[in-house]
Specification:
By secondary structure, the protein is of the alpha+beta class. The chain has 2 domains: 1-129 and 167-268 and 368-378 and 441-506, FAD/NAD(P)-binding domain (3-Layer(bba) Sandwich); 130-164 and 271-359 and 386-438, Cholesterol Oxidase, domain 2. It is built from 13 helices and 26 strands. Helix 1 runs parallel beside helix 13 (487-505) and helix 11 packs across helix 12.
Length: 506
């Protein structure tokens, strides 16, 4: 394989696969896509339930946050996919564009709802996300919580509940690598190189020219480089390349190419906390009576594409206003009709279900910094959870309303009592402590290379400010997280990046 290309895309995640495929389709020249991890040809990747084993595996970067002050010093897992498809190969495949006013609220020229909607439509034409078929009866019962959307997927635009939409096809994961990358490899001048972890980008007179892998190999890009390594990887690579807060880079012995103080700032995620329910004959779980069904589950999935292995675990949920007032939804619920342990083990005896509540539009912000110029050393990831007390209060109100909604849902014979934290934990003080003890995230980190004007590290056309020949195409460019799962918006960003770059390069 030639080490040269016209454009090199770093990171074969949801955005990177689409950016590379669309650049090649638009005829910009030779495109080379680099992925730090292996291919996605592992059978667990395609099986929806396989994510249970993939998260935390060698196909996950297995990042850890720094101790979070708002969580009493706890560290959190920051799961990020490390293979073709990126996090889109280990996630639950939930598909939401977000609210229309999320994009208007970015206040970035060219990114209002009417301008991003065509890109969503183009992506969905290939992904064809749909509501899951064969959900657990518990999930079916959610659709009656608010009325008005009984036969439709819930949406963050208004209070609604039910079965989510997913980017699955024939009960198999259908990622950006499947829908965009592989067809483009067959049709256009696009090469993919897996197991190629990037250290940094090299510049000549402020122009991005080369990608340096961690083994020292250099790959030349004659026309440009696109960073699509995600909200953790992209700012880390940029800082190792000499673009970032000048004082921070100098402390690490990194030569400054361009001082950009906001690189790594604005890191945030959807904060979340949940309720666990346990009881016989409720949700899926490890019980004596369910052992035959579990034993048959692999074969049922293999021959019929149905059953437990066809589930991405999160099958549905809701959007609602935490305080039950006249405002729009400000929290999201993910509902899992499986027993989820709260004592620290991955698997636990018993049957049950789990429902979380997460803040759609959090105010708290953290930041990412390097701990070393060595690419083998993980960066310092401060999610900044609950630095703004409004996030705690929204989560508190949402947790109380979630409990009321779970009591209201028509679960019938599948209903189970709340097992953790339990109905006795009901005062505001006790629930705030529960949030501190058990709060986590929805694994939607964004914002570390926000796009915008003036001091923003990335321009509205996704070019890295202060240098030339390098762009960013992933969730790191979001000024603020969208009001639901971030996989769909990430793909939209990858698609628009290819539009901008092919126009600008011409």
């Amino acid at each position: 394989m030639s080490t040269d290309a016209d454009f090199i895309v770093i990171g074969a995640g949801s955005a990177g696969c689409i950016a590379a495929a669309e650049l090649a389709r638009r005829g910009v020249g030779r495109v080379l896509l680099l992925e730090a991890g292996p291919s996605d040809s592992h059978p667990l990747v395609k099986i929806p339930f396989g994510l249970v084993w993939l998260m935390g595996s060698k196909r996950d970067w297995r990042f850890k946050s720094k101790p979070q002050k708002g969580l009493g010093g706890r560290q959190l897992n920051v799961h990020r996919g490390r293979m073709l498809g990126g996090s889109g190969s280990i996630n639950s495949m939930v598909w939401f564009r977000g609210r229309r006013d999320d994009f208007d609220g970015w206040n970035v020229n060219g990114w209002a709802w009417p301008e991003v909607e065509p890109a969503f439509e183009a992506v969905e034409a290939k992904l064809q996300p749909n509501q899951m078929i064969g959900v657990h009866p518990l999930v079916q019962a959610l659709s009656g919580l608010f009325g008005g959307n009984a036969n439709e997927a819930p949406t963050p635009e208004y209070e609604s509940a039910g079965t989510f939409r997913f980017n699955m096809r024939a009960a198999r994961r259908w990622s950006a690598a499947d829908a965009f990358l592989r067809p483009a490899q067959d049709a256009y001048d696009l090469k993919v190189r897996a197991d190629s972890e990037v250290d940094r980008v090299e510049f000549d007179d402020g122009q991005a020219k080369r990608v340096v892998l961690i083994d020292g190999m250099k790959l030349n890009a004659s026309r440009g480089i696109i960073l699509s390594a995600g909200s953790i990887g992209s700012p880390a690579i940029l800082m190792r390349s000499g673009i970032g807060p000048a004082a921070h880079l100098q402390e690490l012995g990194i030569a400054v190419i361009h001082g950009s103080n906001e690189v790594g700032e604005n890191l945030h995620d959807h904060p979340a906390v949940g309720l666990h329910f346990a009881g016989p004959r409720s949700g899926y779980g490890l019980t004596l009576s369910q052992l035959p069904a579990w034993a048959l589950a692999p074969f049922r999935y293999l021959f019929t594409r149905k059953g437990r292995f066809a589930s991405p675990t999160v099958e549905g949920g809701a959007f609602f206003n935490a305080r039950d007032d006249v405002g729009e939804p400000d929290v999201q619920c993910h509902f899992i009709p499986f027993m989820v342990d709260w004592k620290g083990s991955r698997f636990a005896h018993g049957s049950g279900y789990f429902a979380d509540v997460c803040v759609c539009r959090p105010k708290s912000r953290g930041r990412l910094r390097l701990t070393s110029a060595d690419p083998n050393v993980a960066p310092d990831i401060d999610l900044g959870l609950f630095q703004d007390p409004d996030d705690v209060e929204t989560l508190l109100a949402g947790l109380k309303r979630l409990r009321a909604l779970m009591n209201k849902a028509a679960f019938g014979k599948y209903r189970a009592p709340e097992a953790f934290p339990g109905p006795d934990v009901s005062s505001d003080e006790a629930l705030r402590q529960h949030i501190k003890n058990r709060g986590a995230t929805a694994y939607h980190p964004v914002g570390t290379l926000r796009m915008g004007e003036r001091t923003a590290p990335v321009t509205p056309r996704l070019a890295v400010a202060g240098v030339s020949g390098i762009w960013v195409a992933d969730a790191s460019v979001m000024p603020a997280v969208t009001s639901a799962n971030t996989n769909a918006p990430s793909m939209m960003i990858g698609y628009r990046a290819a539009e901008f770059i092919s126009e600008d390069a011409a």
